[in-house]
């Protein structure tokens, strides 16, 4: 087997296998690279030794059986017996489902999660979007402090278990997307710096020195990150990647790393003969993120739409603090704008930022499926002080708007039945000082927003993770079962009606009135009432009810209208000529 490692600053590189060291030779064709060939079957543990220092895991380790600080292990990706060929499943027309392996089930493993895949198939979603699975310290955590960017967290089951999960998902017709973090590594278990300039002090991020994308040595760092991304798609048969916080990838080079990555992924897609895609998390509201490369964009296939979330969240909750302020001030009109134009802040003043923000997206050329729309995500739930979710009552109208939108809809695990279990921030650092610092910082942050420190869950307390696990008995309870049926019916309707997957943003007409919203999507009218009192919503044409929450009814009279109960929603179909959009 060929062992090779980039260590441009080292004078000597050795590999430690079975308590014996073997010297690596400089690679004559690649500056800074070292290599050797040794017999090492799958499962063999090994570590690199630089200039006589301590043993270090391989930066490109495919497995860390003893955690981020232990030795690496050889993985033979070709040995896995996939059950069937997978043609792939593209992003247009998709309905995503974000889940966290560690809390999707109490067991917190890939194999346990795979047993719940029939539920997702019956729900009607098309793709499972996994939160990060790279190794991190301890057993439990969100995954955004991962290290070893080519490996799988061992407590989840490691590489083989992840492949079993993906294979099972494919048997159910579900694609799989993985959340990857390229903008930083966790504070513990990061052994990259001794190997080379993986980070640079030229730029700073909320996590410290930035990943080196444009300083000396950045060619190899970019290759390291892109190689990891391609390996997930190729070796684990994934359908796409979600790229965490791409606005923190500081890159001043003429060819931005994200453009380079999108080109590489498109090339791999052509080589494999199946669709692959990249979804960005970006707070820039910049249409160039998803614009095609030939049009001067980065060529990413989609991005999360926090503007749509914020507009929807303020409409259903009435919250107005922090970054919600501008959306709350606009009321349902903020939703109307985002549904037809993608961004709410498109060059407008953002009071939260104290400046103008964003750039207009052209609704005539930018397809809506390039924006991912949602009522909840791990961020928008977990970054609340107590991890509280939207309620069954709030989710009925929210679901109607998400699942009939021109965007790519995404659900957060348990949302479909109105899960009452919170999803809280939790960590499992064995370094007591680091763990205590995280607890203090979390509580201090929310104390600044008016929370009593003792009311903010301790991330290091195992009970915080346990509270965050889904309760799979809930979907069988009447109130939750009714909401689950609503989600299933909305997803089935979306799948059956091309007008509801039409991504043409300039074909969407949304009209706000008081605490109500009416959205025109071809022959369909989606109406929602966000108030705690019944409301009359005028219609621009005679309609029939397709789907409705209990208590919704068409009103007789010369002017078509529908009566919605408090927090009610309905999907209607026109039966006559329209008066306006």
TrEMBL record:
<feature type="binding site">
    <location>
        <begin position="306"/>
        <end position="310"/>
    </location>
    <ligand>
        <name>substrate</name>
    </ligand>
</feature>
<dbReference type="InterPro" id="IPR012768">
    <property type="entry name" value="Trehalose_TreZ"/>
</dbReference>
<dbReference type="InterPro" id="IPR006047">
    <property type="entry name" value="GH13_cat_dom"/>
</dbReference>
<dbReference type="GO" id="GO:0005737">
    <property type="term" value="C:cytoplasm"/>
</dbReference>
<feature type="binding site">
    <location>
        <begin position="378"/>
        <end position="383"/>
    </location>
    <ligand>
        <name>substrate</name>
    </ligand>
</feature>
<dbReference type="InterPro" id="IPR044901">
    <property type="entry name" value="Trehalose_TreZ_E-set_sf"/>
</dbReference>
<dbReference type="InterPro" id="IPR013783">
    <property type="entry name" value="Ig-like_fold"/>
</dbReference>
<dbReference type="GO" id="GO:0033942">
    <property type="term" value="F:4-alpha-D-(1-&gt;4)-alpha-D-glucanotrehalose trehalohydrolase activity"/>
</dbReference>
<protein>
    <recommendedName>
        <fullName>Malto-oligosyltrehalose trehalohydrolase</fullName>
        <ecNumber>3.2.1.141</ecNumber>
    </recommendedName>
</protein>
<keyword id="KW-0378">Hydrolase</keyword>
<dbReference type="InterPro" id="IPR014756">
    <property type="entry name" value="Ig_E-set"/>
</dbReference>
<dbReference type="InterPro" id="IPR017853">
    <property type="entry name" value="GH"/>
</dbReference>
<feature type="region of interest" description="Disordered">
    <location>
        <begin position="51"/>
        <end position="74"/>
    </location>
</feature>
<dbReference type="GO" id="GO:0005992">
    <property type="term" value="P:trehalose biosynthetic process"/>
</dbReference>
<comment type="similarity">
    <text>Belongs to the glycosyl hydrolase 13 family.</text>
</comment>
<feature type="active site" description="Nucleophile">
    <location>
        <position position="244"/>
    </location>
</feature>
<feature type="active site" description="Proton donor">
    <location>
        <position position="281"/>
    </location>
</feature>
<keyword id="KW-0119">Carbohydrate metabolism</keyword>
<dbReference type="Pfam" id="PF00128">
    <property type="entry name" value="Alpha-amylase"/>
</dbReference>
<feature type="binding site">
    <location>
        <begin position="242"/>
        <end position="247"/>
    </location>
    <ligand>
        <name>substrate</name>
    </ligand>
</feature>
<feature type="site" description="Transition state stabilizer">
    <location>
        <position position="379"/>
    </location>
</feature>
<feature type="domain" description="Glycosyl hydrolase family 13 catalytic">
    <location>
        <begin position="78"/>
        <end position="494"/>
    </location>
</feature>
<comment type="pathway">
    <text>Glycan biosynthesis; trehalose biosynthesis.</text>
</comment>
<keyword id="KW-0963">Cytoplasm</keyword>
<keyword id="KW-0326">Glycosidase</keyword>
């Amino acid at each position: 087997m060929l062992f090779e490692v980039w260590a441009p600053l080292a004078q000597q590189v050795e590999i430690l296998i079975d308590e014996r060291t073997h010297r690596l030779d400089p690679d004559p064709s690649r500056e800074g690279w070292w290599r050797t060939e040794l017999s090492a079957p799958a499962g063999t543990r090994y570590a690199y030794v630089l200039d006589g220092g301590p043993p270090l895991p391989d930066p490109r380790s495919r497995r860390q059986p003893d955690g981020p600080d232990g030795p690496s292990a050889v993985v033979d990706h070709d040995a896995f017996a996939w059950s069937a060929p997978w043609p792939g499943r593209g992003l247009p027309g998709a309905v995503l489902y974000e889940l966290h392996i560690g809390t999707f089930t109490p067991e917190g493993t890939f194999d346990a999660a795979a047993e719940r895949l029939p539920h997702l198939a019956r729900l009607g979603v098309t793709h499972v979007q996994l939160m990060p699975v790279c190794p991190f310290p301890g057993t439990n955590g969100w995954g955004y402090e991962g290290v070893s960017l080519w490996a799988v967290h061992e407590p989840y089951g490691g590489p083989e278990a992840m492949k079993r999960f993906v294979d099972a998902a494919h048997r159910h017709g579900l694609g799989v997307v993985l959340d990857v973090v390229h903008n930083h590594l966790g504070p513990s278990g990061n052994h990259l710096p001794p190997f080379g300039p993986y980070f640079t002090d030229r730029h700073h991020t909320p996590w410290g020195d930035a990943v080196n994308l444009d300083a000396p040595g950045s060619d190899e760092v970019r290759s390291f990150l892109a190689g990891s991304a391609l390996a997930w798609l190729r070796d684990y048969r994934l359908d796409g990647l979600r790229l965490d916080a791409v606005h923190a990838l500081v890159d001043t080079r003429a060819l931005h790393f994200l453009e380079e990555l999108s080109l590489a992924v498109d090339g791999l897609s052509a080589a494999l003969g199946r669709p692959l895609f990249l979804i960005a998390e970006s707070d820039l509201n910049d249409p160039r993120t998803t614009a095609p490369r030939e049009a001067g964009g980065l060529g990413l296939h989609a991005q999360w739409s926090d503007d749509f979330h914020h507009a929807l969240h303020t409409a259903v909750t009435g919250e107005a603090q922090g970054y919600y302020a501008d959306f709350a001030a606009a009321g349902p009109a903020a939703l109307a704008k985002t549904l037809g134009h993608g961004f709410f802040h498109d060059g407008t003043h953002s009071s939260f930022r104290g400046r103008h923000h964003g750039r207009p997206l052209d609704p005539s050329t930018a397809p809506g499926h390039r924006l991912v729309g949602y009522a909840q995500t791990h961020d928008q739930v977990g970054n609340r002080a107590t991890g509280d979710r939207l309620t069954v009552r709030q989710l009925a109208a929210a679901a109607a708007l998400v699942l009939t939108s021109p965007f790519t809809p995404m659900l957060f695990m348990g949302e479909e039945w109105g899960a009452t279990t919170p999803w809280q921030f939790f960590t499992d650092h064995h370094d007591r000082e680091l763990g205590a610092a995280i607890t203090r910082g979390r509580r201090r942050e929310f104390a600044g927003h008016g929370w009593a420190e003792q009311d903010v869950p301790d991330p290091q307390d195992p009970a915080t993770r346990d509270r965050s696990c889904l309760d799979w008995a809930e979907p069988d309870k009447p109130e939750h079962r009714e909401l689950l049926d609503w989600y299933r019916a909305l997803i089935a309707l979306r799948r059956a009606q091309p007008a509801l997957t039409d991504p043409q943003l300039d074909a969407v007409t949304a009209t706000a009135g008081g605490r109500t919203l009416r959205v025109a999507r071809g022959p369909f009218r989606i109406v929602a009432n966000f108030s705690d009192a019944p409301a009359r919503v005028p219609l621009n044409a005679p309609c029939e009810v397709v789907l409705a929450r209990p208590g919704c009814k068409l009103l007789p009279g010369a002017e078509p209208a529908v009566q919605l109960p408090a927090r009610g929603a309905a999907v209607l179909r026109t039966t006559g000529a329209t008066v306006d959009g």
